[in-house]
User: Which sequence fits this backbone?
């Protein structure tokens, strides 16, 4: 079951904040966040695991509400380099390894 | 480590031809994934392997697609015969221990079927 991301697209000015949401209709074991720039491969940002563990970059923050089956990625004081498409990927209620990605959220940061 | 290596980077082929995409995962990674990316359908999981064994191929579009992993350092995705609707970017990714570790993506193969 593909997770649903919102919004589909965001345009920001440098220094502004953004939140990208990811929701699933099924219980989740883990949520991954990746960023993809045009013509490049997706690059890992963060993993949030059932039980509260997080792994990822210090400058990226995210939350995982297991009961609501939702995750949010927080981009604060955005920089031009934050532009790209953000994907959340989810695995079901146990660690199957099967990572299904949402449709993506395109973020554009303008000077 | 050089990361996940895919070849070729670009492939243009005629409809009906066989296409083989190749992937070398990061050494020591137990999981290997094949994804297809298009504007319309996003990043779709086609198949994934654990310790060289196919675990879930429910995302493979049809019998024209097949994937193998003969050993821990090599995987192929084959399309035979190819069709224009197969045009997409195909990514291979690997991870150490499944979905509680990050997936590393290769640079992708851009396939164009004319």
Assistant:
């Amino acid at each position: 079951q593909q997770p649903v991301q919102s919004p589909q697209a965001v345009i920001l000015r440098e220094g502004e904040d953004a939140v990208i949401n990811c929701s699933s209709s099924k219980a989740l074991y883990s949520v991954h966040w990746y960023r993809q720039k045009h013509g490049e491969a997706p690059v890992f940002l963060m993993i949030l695991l059932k039980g509260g563990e997080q792994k990822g970059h210090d400058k990226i923050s995210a939350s995982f509400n297991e009961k609501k089956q939702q995750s949010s990625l927080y981009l604060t004081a955005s920089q031009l380099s934050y532009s790209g498409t953000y994907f959340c990927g989810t695995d079901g209620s146990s660690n199957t390894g099967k990572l299904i990605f949402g449709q993506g959220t395109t973020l554009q940061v303008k000077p | 480590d050089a990361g996940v290596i895919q070849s070729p980077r670009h492939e243009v082929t005629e409809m009906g031809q066989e296409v083989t995409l190749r992937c070398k995962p990061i050494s020591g990674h137990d999981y290997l994934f094949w994804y297809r990316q298009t504007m319309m359908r996003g990043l779709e999981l086609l198949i994934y392997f654990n310790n060289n064994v196919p675990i879930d191929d429910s995302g493979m579009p049809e019998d024209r697609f097949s994937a193998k992993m003969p050993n821990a350092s090599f995987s192929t995705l084959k399309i035979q015969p190819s069709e224009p609707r197969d045009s997409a970017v195909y990514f291979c990714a690997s991870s150490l221990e499944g979905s509680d570790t990050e997936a590393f993506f290769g640079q992708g193969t851009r396939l164009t079927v004319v």
